[in-house]
Hints:
The protein is α+β, with helices and mostly antiparallel strands. It has five helices and eight strands, in the order ββαααβββααβββ. It has a three-stranded antiparallel sheet. The longest helix is centred in the C-terminal third of the chain and has 11 residues, at 107-117. The chain starts with a strand and ends with a strand. 19% of the residues are buried.
Amino acid sequence: ALFTGVSEYVMDESALVLSQRDYWDTINLSEGGMYFAEAPLSGLADLVAQLLPLQGAMEYPAASAGDWSLLRRAEAYRIYRSAQAGFSFAIPALSKWQQVRNSDADLSSGLEAALRRHGLTPGVALKVNTVGSGQVMLASDQGGKLALSND
């Protein structure tokens, strides 16, 4: 199971932890990149959804086979760091990409809107191979738009 987010600690004057609260990017991340408290069982639902993927694969094959390091697992997108490419990149969550690739919706604008909602500023467009070793390169030949491929 994959989880990203932040933890909030309350400590006493001798640096002993009095309490701790976890905020997961998939369920607690809101507008402007702020975290909010969610019902306690929401985390359990997210865990079960990952362990029992009823809708097929939950992540791109290259996410586990390549050199990608997961930085943020939000509901609508993932942010990875690629050691091979030397930079970080965002791609739509696999479920979102599967919805969009069979429609006329613009993949780049949907991803950009989701990133901006969380207070992030998108950079240059990339071409991301989602299988194999997960090669990541600048998408100068894609007309400045994100391109996902599985070849």
